[in-house]
Design brief:
This protein is α+β, with helices and mostly antiparallel strands and about 375 residues long. The chain contains six helices and 17 strands. Strands 1, 2, 3, 4, 5 and 17 form a six-stranded mixed β-sheet that branches. Strands 6, 11, 12, 14, 15 and 16 form a six-stranded antiparallel β-sheet that branches. It is globular.
């Protein structure tokens, strides 16, 4: 008698992954037994199981699922699967709370101000460095620039610092204004939510194949312009408690590398890995659980996008070789259809429908996992 196991391994991109060296973060691993029997019987049973997949590599971000027979990795590329397997697990909590229904887009000022702040901080550091070495330059006969002093209260300040420092406060004021505008937009939207579109799947969606779909929108408002339909796929964050459990770390202790400490108001059991720290989306109203801003998956790819039509629409599949829907505690491969409505003002309006997508009959592999920083305003839809 031998044992068939499914092994999942993940090194998921944390919030702002460009700040991390992937190879320095741990790979989380879980192993579950799916059957026992003789070797040939277990190999035949793989025909009814989802093919293995490996997204990324050992030295970078990684999302992998494979099979073990008596603890030894088994290559299932040669297993002949006649049908496309569909996972039967229920949708994970992040999908139920944050990835279905109507969503707004954040004020574009957020993204513009963040870039402006980064440049302003660099200018401020250069200014402070110059003011530090200016006495030495003056002793060499180099005339100073902006070194005259301005008295404010009882203290004197260099003129150059007085000019530069206010540039740090202007973007902060703009952010406050953008947050207030976002809150007003959310309140106005909740007072008059549109009727949900009706989506009909002409064929069951299969990873790697075009999506045939029909979308009907019964309500069209005066400020609505172009309407597009697209679908996309990505990997959602693993559940934080699953990461701790599989790494053998108590949740009350120091988090593993790459994870932040628990923030009570920005994280919920089973929702995600908790690394967003409340920065994933701008200020949100508490009246809508899960928020009204669609958080991008930190690893995702957008597939076909076409204008709305009364006929059956065919959306091209993603370029990369993604598996079908997976909904375990560690690995969550998520597919969704998005109806994007361009409005006269207020930014695009989004309606999101999760998709249960069948796996391909062969194994899936992506050499480099695409990543983004995870902020709602940084990834346009």
């Amino acid at each position: 008698m031998v044992e068939l196991q499914v092994e999942q391994r993940i090194r998921y991109p944390p919030f702002e992954p460009h700040r991390f060296i992937p190879a320095e973060l741990p790979i989380v691993r879980s192993v579950d037994t799916v059957g026992t029997g003789d070797y040939e019987e277990l190999v035949r049973s793989l025909q009814s199981l989802a093919p293995s997949f490996k997204l990324g590599d050992e030295a970078s971000w990684l999302v992998e699922q494979r099979y073990l027979i008596d603890g030894v990795p088994f290559r299932d590329e040669g297993v002949e699967r006649e049908d496309n397997v569909l996972e039967k697990n229920k949708k994970p909590l992040p999908v139920n709370k944050q990835r279905q229904g109507w969503y707004l887009t954040p004020n574009p000022i957020h993204a513009a101000v963040r870039n402006f702040i980064s440049k302003t901080v660099i200018i401020l550091l250069i200014t402070l460095g110059y003011l530090f070495i200016e006495p030495f330059l003056r002793s060499l006969g180099v005339p100073g620039i902006g070194t005259a002093t301005v008295r404010i209260g009882l203290l004197d300040y260099p003129l150059l610092a007085i000019i530069v420092v206010p540039f740090l406060f202007v973007p902060l004021a703009l952010r406050v204004g953008a947050n207030l505008a976002d809150l007003m937009q959310q309140q106005n939207f909740l007072k008059s939510k549109p009727v949900d579109p009706v989506v009909t799947l002409v064929e069951q969606p299969i990873a790697g194949e075009p999506l045939k779909i029909k979308v009907t929108i019964d309500e069209k408002r005066e400020d609505w312009n172009d309407i597009e339909i697209l679908w996309r796929v990505g990997a959602l964050p693993p559940a934080r408690e699953e990461i701790f459990r599989n790494l053998g770390v108590a949740e009350t202790k120091q988090p593993p590398a790459g994870l932040t400490t628990e923030l009570p108001h920005h994280w919920e059991m089973g929702l995600d890995d908790g690394t967003g720290g409340g920065e994933e989306a701008p200020m949100e109203t508490r009246e809508m659980k899960g928020g009204l801003f669609l958080r991008p998956m930190r690893s995702m790819e957008t597939a076909g996008k076409i204008p709305l039509s009364d006929q059956v629409m065919i959306l091209e599949p993603p370029t990369l070789n993604w598996p079908g829907t997976v909904s375990s505690g560690l690995i969550r491969i998520h597919w969704e259809v998005i109806v994007r409505i361009q409005r006269t003002k207020g930014g695009p309006l989004l309606w999101v429908l999760p998709l249960a997508v069948h796996h391909p009959t062969s194994t899936s592999a992506i050499s480099i996992l695409p990543t983004n920083d995870g902020r709602a305003e940084s990834v346009p839809v």
